[in-house]
Write a structure and sequence with these properties.
about 45% helix, alpha/beta, 2-enoyl-CoA Hydratase, Chain A, domain 1, six-stranded mixed beta sheet
Length: about 260
């Protein structure tokens, strides 16, 4: 089964995060395939809009597939390598030359929220849920993942999301400016594709130029290599191992700060 699906309707392509049995939880293969898919779509001048969604109507993406952590993110070296796949995928979404719309149904947690934040516009249903509860895993959000969400919500809300680790509803997400619109659950798909069609009806070169101009004005400083690596130091801590083990055992972790 392909973990990233791509279907086309005229000038609009839908990219689907396809892991429905795990609420589209993101694994390494999904990150890698998402990056490849978005880079290919960006190079296609015949496109005018991309819609990203999750398979089914229960989740956009419910975070990371934590069952693979012991194999794929056992220490900081592995974490950095894994993080490179995430960063490449995030940048492929953010730097897509065509406008990108996130169609959000159900849970939009962790990495799912990070992907949605890299999109240009986000529409969700009234029952959608948002959050980044990685503090409970002893896990940090690295620079490459922080960038998109921080650009959308700002410092104060970013700290609230990460330090509190709470999962919250669609109305609060709208208040925090995480989403552009909240619509009844039954209308999410219709509203998102109506938006995509309005975008596709416009001049495609103008849409691409506007993205380019806005990105240039919002340019962020480069992060030094040693600072970038620090984003993965959490994988060498006892708290990370405790957090992941507790999550898999469905228990509350007891963190020690080591």
């Amino acid at each position: 089964m392909d973990s990233i699906l791509s279907t086309r309707d005229g000038h609009i392509v839908t990219v689907t995060l396809n892991n429905p049995h795990k609420l589209n939880a993101l694994n390494r293969l999904m990150w890698q395939q998402l990056g490849v898919t978005m880079r290919e779509l960006s190079a296609d001048d015949s496109l005018r809009c991309v819609v990203i969604r999750g398979a089914g109507d229960q989740a956009f993406a419910a975070g990371a597939d934590i069952s693979e952590f012991a194999r794929e993110r056992a220490d900081s070296n592995q974490g950095e390598q894994y993080g490179a796949s995430i960063h490449k995928a995030m940048q492929a979404v953010a730097r897509c030359r065509h406008p990108v719309v996130a169609l959000i149904q159900g849970a939009c947690i962790g990495g799912g929220l990070e992907i949605a934040a890299m999109c240009d516009m986000r529409i969700c249903g009234e029952s959608s849920r948002f959050g980044v509860p990685i503090k409970n895993l002893g896990l940090t959000m690295g620079y490459g993942e922080l960038q998109g969400v921080l650009a959308v919500v700002g410092r104060a809300v970013m700290l609230e999301i990460l330090l509190e680790g709470r999962v919250f509803g669609a109305a609060e997400a709208l208040h925090k400016r995480l989403v552009n619109r909240v619509v009844p659950d039954a209308d999410v798909e219709r509203e998102a594709y109506a938006l995509a069609r309005r975008i596709a009806d416009g001049a495609p070169l103008v849409a691409r130029w506007h993205k380019q101009f806005i990105d240039k004005l919002g340019a962020t400083p480069e992060i030094a290599a040693d600072e970038w690596k620090q984003g993965y130091a959490c994988y060498d801590t006892d708290d990370y191992r405790r957090g992941v083990a507790a999550f898999l055992a469905k228990s509350k972790p007891e963190f020690t700060g080591h």
